[in-house]
Structures are given as C-alpha cells and as structure tokens.
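Thought: the user asked what ATP synthase subunit b looks like in 3D. I have the sequence; next I should run the structure tool and report back without guessing.
Action: structure_tool
Action Input:
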Amino acid sequence: MLSRIALRSVAARQSTPTALIARTSASSTEVSGVRDEVNFPRPVRGEPGKVRLGFIPEEWFQFFHSKTGVTGPYTFGVGLATYLFSKEIYVMEHEYYTGLSIFIMVYYASTRFGPKLAEFLDKEVDNVENSWNAGRVNTIKSLEDAIASEKEAQWRAQGQELLIEAKKENVLLQLEAAYRERMMNAYQEVKRRLDYQLEKTILERRIAQKNMVDWIVANVTKAITPDQEKQALDRCIADLAALAKK
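Observation:
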C-alpha cells in the first residue's frame, strides 16, 4: 500500500504543471461562460486498482512479468520470506502467530463480507454523488425547459405574424367590399337620376304632343264652316249608303 501511495504521489508531482494549466484553462473557460467538455471533461470518480492476493498491487506483477515471467513475482515473494525466516531477520515468535491469525481473519472477512460492504459503500457514494449532481441536473433541466419555452414563444410569435397578415388581408377585403358597395350605390343613384330625366323628357314630349294635337284639332274645327260641315256630313252618309249596298 505504501508503494502504491509512493507511485501515485510521484505521478501526481509529474502531472502537477499539466493539472495546473488544465485547471487554469478550465477556470478561464468557465468564466467565459462556455465549458470545453472535449478538452476539459468533468472529473469522474476513480475506481481502485487491481490487486492480487488481496493486497499486492497489479503493477508489481506487471513489473516482474516483463523481466522474470509469470512465476517471477511468486518466486521472489517465497524466496524473500524464506530468506527472512532462515536468517531470523523476522523471528516467528508468539506475535508472528498472532499476526498470522489476524491476517487470516482479515482475509476471511474481506473475502466473505468485503464484496457486500463494497457494494453498500458504492451505493452510498453513488447516493452522495447523485445528491451533489442533483442541483446541476435540475439547473440543466430548467435551462432546457427555458429553451423549449423560448422556442415555443418564437413559434407563437411566428403564428402571430401570420395572424396579423391574415387580419391585414381581411381588412383589405373589407375595404374592397365597402368600395364596391359605394360604387354600386353611386351607380344606382346616377341611374335613378338619369331615369328620372328620361321619364321627365318623355312626359314633357307627350304633353307637348297632346297640346299640339289639341291645338291643331281646335284650329281645324274652328276653320270648318257650317257649309263644309254639312257637305262632309252628306258625303259621309253617301259613303255609308254605298257601303251598305255592297
């Protein structure tokens, strides 16, 4: 575990300038109002690395595998333990057996209850992470709803423009109908006056003709003498008698 912490600390020191630059760029990007998700993605919770035998990092096996093969790490571990025990560098006294017993119990507990405990803790971590992300998710949802309502408002505004155009066309049609109605009224009034003048002229002509006929008849009647009237009467009687014979 100490070796893994040492390796991670070295990697963190090596990546510190890059991390500072990335953090500075990310902060400047967030200040500008636009976040570059491609170059500066949001941090994701890291998963623990793989281990063998419950506590030995996978990196050590990979290190030995490139030099000694597959059995190299196990041979090194067994040889190191044999060397420590044979040279009595590590004395197997009562504390050794106590530590061995504790190791066996810890190993049994970790293999038996570790997955369930890890699943429970992962759920708790997920709940905490979801609670932290709830505000951001709600904000994104509210912004998406605002965008959708804005698009709907734009669509309604376009509909209002079409409605205004339709109302303008309706007003123009009403003006055209009113114009045609007034033109028809003017035509009818002019026609009525012209018909009145025509009837007046015809009536005056008839009265003049009647007066002319009456004047002619009166003058002709005045011009006929009694002798002429008697001659005309006799001629009429003779014509009637001739017609009677036929």
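Thought: the tool returned a structure. Summarizing for the user.
Final Answer: Structure for ATP synthase subunit b predicted. The first strand starts at residue 51 and ends at 52. Helices lie at 2-14, 16-32, 58-68, 72-86, 94-223, 226-245.
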